[in-house]
Amino acid sequence: MKVALVNNQLQLGGAETVMHQLHKGLLGEGHESRLYVAGGKTYPRGVAPLYPRLLSRLDHSRFHSLTERLFPRYAWTDRRFRGLAQDDADVVNLHNFHGNYASIASLAHVAAHKKLVWTFHALWGVTGGCDHPRGCLRYQEKCGACPQLGQWAVGPVDHTAQQLQEKLDRLSALPLHIVAPSRWLADIVRASQVGRSWKVHSIPNGVDPAQFSAPAERSADRVTILVVNRDFADEQKGYGIVKQALSMIDPAGKRIVLAGHASGPAADALSHTFDCRDAGYVRDRDALARLFAEADIFLFASPAENFPCVVLEAMASECCVVATPTGGVVEQIEHGHSGLLATVISGEALGESLLAALADGALRRQLGQAARERVLAHFTEARMVRSYLDLYREIIDED
Q: Does domain 223-378 have CATH number 3.40.50.2000?
């Protein structure tokens, strides 16, 4: 079996984690897997950049303007992506796609010529351009006057009505196979006007429980609260909710660890009150595992998420997870058994759950142990890879 895995970045967040897990799993089962990546400066061996390696280096140098003028990145990546229609892969598995490295027309072209699996890590594929509608239902009928104008992934100009219509015109009738990591997302795709005729499969994300495991014992001198965030400056990632929750607790005997992009300014905002450590953006998986192993509580507050890998990693590490009831998070955590969920998505509600976790060390340990057991039973990387392989075989055998 030959599978082409396509994504915007090589390493960033959950989409990249899943792509690497599938790549490793395919190779481990004796199949051929190729990674196609649109963005980046350098690429390791085995990665096929959609923008040439030399141009990628020049694009991230003082020659950026000249490179973009002579060799526009988008024109190159769109053409290279479109060429996957003639690739020898049996299946093309698309991950993050926001129209920023290839057009909707090129996606339709590839899907018309190849068996295409599109893993939805958010909802862009069925909206007018946003990743998470956040209660807005315009995408079910007609987008426009977008409330997320100026935010990622909509941008500063409102093209949401046109984009939604283009998806309806070019994509809705295609025989696409959508993988939704959460049942929550799967239900939204099936009910949407763009995706109602697609085949939607629910395959939960997974984690390698051997990579993320609990230490023999955690510190008895203080309670460590870990917050991992792809970008602390992104309002949609919920750091404002975290700060409000933390403002409700007594800082004595507590240590806050922040890991992710823009963690420095985020830590500065807390350092006058808490013993706060800025871990920065952690690329090394072993280093990230050590952070989880040191943490008593993992605090998660994004108001718009699908099925976050980082929550599974915390659960596998026997952290007591305290989280907002967001998207597929309520499918990962059984409230009161394998973690604590706030009653609503707010700093005050999250703070109340955090206070409950801090008040009872035995409860924290019990919830952490149950969380790892839940991962072992339902959310392992091996189980996820097997489900994808079964889907690929099913699609290849369709004809």
A: yes
Mean pLDDT of 324-341: 96
- Whether 2-206+381-396 and 223-378 share one fold: the answer is yes
What's the pLDDT tens digit per position in 9-38? 988 788 999 999 999 999 999 999 999 999
Confidence of residue 307 (pLDDT cuts 50, 70, 90): very high
Topology of domain 2-206+381-396 in CATH is Rossmann fold (3.40.50)
**What is the pLDDT at residue 399?**
66
Distance from C-alpha of 347 to C-alpha of 324, rounded to nearest angstrom: 9
What residue spans define the domains of the chain? 2-206+381-396, 223-378
Average pLDDT over residues 54-83: 94
Share of the chain above pLDDT 90, in %: 82
Task: Provide the whole-model pTM.
Answer: 0.92
User: Residues 289-306: what's their mean pLDDT?
Assistant: 93
Residue 371: predicted pLDDT: 97
- What is the pLDDT of the chain when averaged over all its residues? 93
Q: What is the dihedral of CA 359, 339, 367, 347, to 10 degrees?
A: -20
- CA separation for the pair 332, 295 (Å, rounded): 19
pLDDT value at residue 234: 81
